[in-house]
Amino acid sequence: MHEDEQNATSQDLLDLNEVMQAFGVDEWSNLGPLHAPDSELFQVLVEIQGQRYILRERPEELVEAEGTHHYAFQRYLADQGIPIAPLRLTDQGEPYATIGEDTFELREWVAGEVFDSSDTRERTWISAAGDMLGRFHQAARQYPGPQHCWPSEVQAGGLTQGWLNFARGQAEQYEVYAISAALSNLVDAWEAALPAAMMAIGTGRNLPELHIHGDYSAQNLRFTARDVSQVLGLEASRWEKRLLEVAYGVFSFAGLQWQGESGLTRPLVRRGLDPERASLFLRSYSAIYPSVPGESALLVDALTLVAPIITANGPLEDIFYGSEGLEDMPIEDALDRLAWATALPNWLMKVRRSFAEMW
Asked: How far is the CA of 341 from the CAs of 190, 268, 309, in angstroms?
């Protein structure tokens, strides 16, 4: 260790030394904590023999599931040219180390910029994101490992319904009537649209299935001036219809305004999604992996399935999870965002043909 951890306690240093030793590292430098806007997990930048790494706590749900699929999948994708930074292995050849009740990963640090909707390079980045997802899916088609499937209750339709049930429960807890009523209206609108979308996708024929990224959004990509420099966050990777991930990517880049390092998102446009950005993403994706017959006609149905999950964890996150801090929330702003989300199902129905033609 070097003498540059003056802000850490002796116990902290002892704990980190133990973690690093589990990865076979005795000499290292602590370059300080990292802020991850989408995560509260411990992360710190370290240097080992001139190479920088990110030491981070492994997500608890991954530990509980004892998931290993995404590790094998990442190694395969990296071998296929997808920019996924390698993990440093322990002396036992494991991609993670467990110290007491905590589990850690040590991943090589790769330079890259966080997506920001206000950046002048935004459209270049959106195109690069569509291209990268096409490359990702083409590589995933050839993955030789076993299928990693989620239980049926947490697949697309069931997962979306779970979020809507949660939203209805939150609506009942709000003391401010305007917020409670608006949240109930949102759930009603989405529950009315969900069955038809699920049926349409369920009856779709020969829709490509593969191992998807699982959370392909702006927060899980890093960029150079023109390209994607790193793909992150594959913990939710699973066997799924690729149509759903294409819709997820479209919504992320054409529906949300990303505010850089803060991790905050807001609706990108006042109504629905931005067609220009959606088209840009889809054109770049399709140049690598075009739709199959009948698939593009289901894009709006897929958007209907994924939108509640994305909005609950993005533009409406403070409303879904921040009821205790409601007194600090501008009510007009919250109502505007709820109105945007409530109107999405009808808006999507109106653009079904134009969105299908983009892909």
From this structure: 9, 12, 11
